[in-house]
Structure formats: C-alpha cells, structure tokens
Design a protein that fits this description.
about 140 residues; alpha+beta; Archease, Possible Chaperone, Chain: A, domain 1; three-stranded antiparallel beta sheet
C-alpha cells in the first residue's frame, strides 16, 4: 500500500496503490490528511461515516468528500481508518485528534475531491487510482 504525489499544473494529484479496497481507501484518506495537515495525529477520538454509491469509484469519492467535511467541521486530524464494505455502501471508522496549529499547521486547504480521472483500476498486483484534490 502506498501513495505518491504526481505532477499537476494547479491541483494536487495523488497516485494510490493497494492490495485491496480497504487499503486503497485508507491510503487515499492518509493522502488527504497529508495534504491538509503537517505532523502526526494520535487516535484519541473516533467517529463513523457512511458513503453510498453504485460503484467502488463512487464509494471512494463519497468517503473522501465526507472525510474532508468531517475534518473541517469537527476540526479533527484523522490518522486511522477502518472500513466495512456493503453491497452499495462503505462505513468508515475514523480515528484522530483535535487540530493543534503548532503540531498540524502548515498544510494546504483542500476545496474538494475532483471526479476528473477518478477511476479505480484492478491490476495484477492490486488496485490503483489517481485522485485529484482541488486546492
């Protein structure tokens, strides 16, 4: 499992690789948190979110959009992700801690998760996906 930033003219493009959907979603969540916040967080608070959609691509987009919303509204930096996949939904258990400017400050503001180029591909060694974060 991994993620890496790729070159993009205006926004931030991340390439995610993982063995399975749970790993892909977790790495995508970690990528989003890395863009938004610096430093590390501890898993001291927990919330649960659910995203629904007809495809795995829709579930990933919904999860990331909800993660962005919850992080901003609750002022939390998430560091652990656990997933339960249903037929057309994913429930994510998010763990993190309150934002502390001296620890987490200095990241970029993410405005949203783009649909442009968002497509999960199955490859011989797992799953890959490119995600464009609007900054």
């Amino acid at each position: 499992m991994s993620f890496e930033e790729r070159e993009h003219t205006a926004d931030i493009l991340m390439h995610i690789r993982a063995d399975d959907p749970a790993g892909l979603f977790a790495d995508a969540g970690h990528a989003l948190m890395k863009i938004m916040y610096k430093g590390t967080a501890k898993p001291v608070q927990e919330i649960t979110i659910t995203a629904a959609g007809p495809t795995l691509d829709h579930l990933l987009h919904g999860f990331l959009s909800d993660l962005l919303f919850e992080s901003e509204v609750r002022n939390l930096v998430f560091c652990e992700f656990e997933f339960i996949f249903g037929e057309r939904e994913v429930t994510a258990i998010l763990r993190g801690e309150p934002f502390n400017p001296s620890v987490h400050g200095g990241g970029a503001e993410v405005k949203g998760i783009s649909w442009h180029g968002l497509f999960i591909k199955s490859e011989p060694d797992g799953l890959t996906c490119d995600i464009l974060f609007d900054v």
